Each structure stands twice: as structure tokens, then as C-alpha cells.
Amino acid sequence: MGVTVLLWGIILFFLGSYLITETWTWGYRGKWTNLNTYIPASICISLHRSIFGPPKELVFSEEQLMRYDGSNPNLPIYVAIDGDVYDVTAGSMWYGLGASYHHFAGKDAARAYVTGCFQDHLTHDLRGLSEKQLKGVDHWKKFYENHHKYFKVGRVLHAPIDEHAPIPPPCKQAVGQKP
Asked: Which pTM does this prediction carry?
């Protein structure tokens, strides 16, 4: 009798959590609810690949990627950084049409991630950035690679940048900077 009541209590606890917060853990998303804490990601990836085969990586042109900017609710939302494309549909409240990070959707805006210039630096052109800024680009790539809701879907192919093309000028009104 006591074990049955305890079992039903546990079931109701998790069911109530899911019904109220849409998570099984009352909204907690941390180290202890991440499967990678208990099973190394390499094992999960190996197991997945042995069952389903290697994932097919999508390849986009810049024009194709623009279709995934959140303006069409029937398509996923993709962002790219330094050529890698990530599905951020789960974060549509951030990347969707009219949202605060919508300017990143549907394009590779690696430069803007580290300069904070969301008007003139929405480009993949990393020429002229400092070592610290290039490390910042790597930081953002790792952010998307390790995010619990976002995942890599492919690559965007960029036309080569003409070596004589001007480097984007420094931004005077970057976010976080004083005018």
C-alpha cells in the first residue's frame, strides 16, 4: 500500500510539473537534468549514429538561408555564425519576427556577434577583427553547439571575399557602447 501511494505521488509530481511548466522538472534546466551529465555526449552521439547513421548536413547558399529568418511560421528559424548553421526555432521568442535578436535570423552575422553593431556588421566578414574578438566568435559558436535547445543543421557557403574589398568600418553606435 505504502509503495503504491509513493509511486502515484511521484507520477503526479512529474505529471503536474509537465502540465504547469511544460517540463518534467518544474522548469529547472541545469547540470542535473542534462543527460550529458550522466552519459558522455560522445557515447550518445556514437549510439545515435550506429542506429540512424550519420546525420545529413544541409548546405545553404546565402540566398537559401535568408528564407529561414522567422518571417514564415511554417519554416524553422536558422542563424549562422562563421559558416555553421543552427536551428534556433525553440528560441523563436528571441529570434522570431519582431524579436530582439531577429537581426541574426536567416544570415551569417558573425561580425555583429562580437562588435555589437547590428546595423552595419551583419556579415560573415571577420577581416580586421582583433584576436579577442575572434575568440568571441568562437565563444558564440560554442554557445550554439552546446545549447540544450539549439542544434547544428549544416553550413552556409559564402562567396569568397575580394581581398581588395574594404573592411567594414568600426561601428560608432554599437550596443553597449556610448555614442
From this structure: 0.67
